[in-house]
Amino acid sequence: MAATTPVALITGAAHRLGARTARALHQKGWNLLVHYRSREQQANALIEQMNRQRPDSACAIQADLSQLSEITRLASEATAHWDRLDALVNNASVFYPTPTGGATEDDWSTILDTNLRAPFFLLQACLPSLRKHRGSVVNLIDIYSEKPVADHPLYCASKAGLAALTRSWAKDLAPDVRVNGVSPGAILWPEGNGDMDTPQQQAILDKTPLARTGNPDDIAGAIVFLICDAPFITGQIVAVDGGRSLNM
Ligand SMILES: NC(=O)c1ccc[n+]([C@@H]2O[C@H](COP(=O)([O-])OP(=O)(O)OC[C@H]3O[C@@H](n4cnc5c(N)ncnc54)[C@H](OP(=O)(O)O)[C@@H]3O)[C@@H](O)[C@H]2O)c1
């Protein structure tokens, strides 16, 4: 018999926005499936903390979402762990510049497969369990899906595609499963390849009416609201951006 505690799977949840969202849902009494690709130590530290607060309430699952076979395995391990799935948060993503003229097929595959193909096939594989439990999905999009940032055409296309999937799924999966999106503005500056210099960051803040970066809790709060407190909301994409999209 399936457990009664609701269960959420969050992809790319070992750190940053995904980890904050995992903590927030856990505090609401949910059980958490923390997906990670490479950050095993951080994923294990996160679930150990949660399991100390509430025994057997968190589990980490590794998978490379650029591989379809890994996505299928992740879905079957996730849905089997507590024999239920009530929420899927498609959070894992890659972000780096691919100026037109220099982008490669590898760039196309890396960005489109992770940011767009993976959410589609993961949702498809999790659908029977989500339907059974009248679950919901939140996709992490980006305000750049509508107003593109320069030199990131593949990233912007991947997030625009995810916005389209959000609306298609909301229509197609109703009334069993609700599907919404959250579009962050500047919350945490990118790491690694996507690094921006300080003047670029300042230029973004200058165009943000609330004049600051967001806090990961702002994103986690919006996701928790859409999953837990919005039974009549589906097909919506909420910009959590301090008003930045008003000035783009
Ligand atoms: N941060 C912001 O201010 C901001 C702004 C706009 C939109 N967003 C969106 O919000 C979401 C979270 O943002 P974030 O900055 O917290 O994300 P992030 O740190 O850039 O990425 C989250 C995780 O994605 C995982 N990932 C990347 N490629 C993967 C693959 N092939 N297979 C499996 N996992 C993979 C990584 O897992 P491992 O580390 O375990 O390898 C990474 O930790 C993203 O969808 C992002 O596009 C964020």
Q: What number is the mean pLDDT? A: 96
The H-level CATH homologous superfamily, spelled out, is: NAD(P)-binding Rossmann-like Domain
Structural Rg: 17 Å
Per DSSP E runs of 2 or more residues, the count of β-strands stands at 7
- Runs in which pLDDT lies below 50 for 5 or more consecutive residues are none
Which hetero compounds are present in the coordinates? NADP nicotinamide-adenine-dinucleotide phosphate
Strands ordered across the widest β-sheet: 3-2-1-4-5-6-7
Number of spatially distinct domains: 1
Separate helix tally: 7
Itemize the secondary structure elements and their pairings:
Layout: E1 7-10, H1 16-27, E2 31-36, H2 40-53, E3 58-62, H3 68-81, E4 87-90, H4 105-132, E5 136-140, H5 153-173, E6 178-184, H6 198-206, H7 216-228, E7 237-240
Parallel strand pairs: 1-2, 1-4, 2-3, 4-5, 5-6, 6-7
Helix pairs in contact: 1-7, 3-4, 4-5
Description of the structure:
The chain has helices at 16-27, 40-53, 68-81, 105-132, 153-173, 198-206, 216-228; strands at 7-10, 31-36, 58-62, 87-90, 136-140, 178-184, 237-240. The chain has 248 residues and is α/β, with parallel strands linked by helices. It is built from seven helices and seven strands. It is 45% helix and 14% strand. The protein has one domain: NAD(P)-binding Rossmann-like Domain (Rossmann fold), CATH 3.40.50.720.
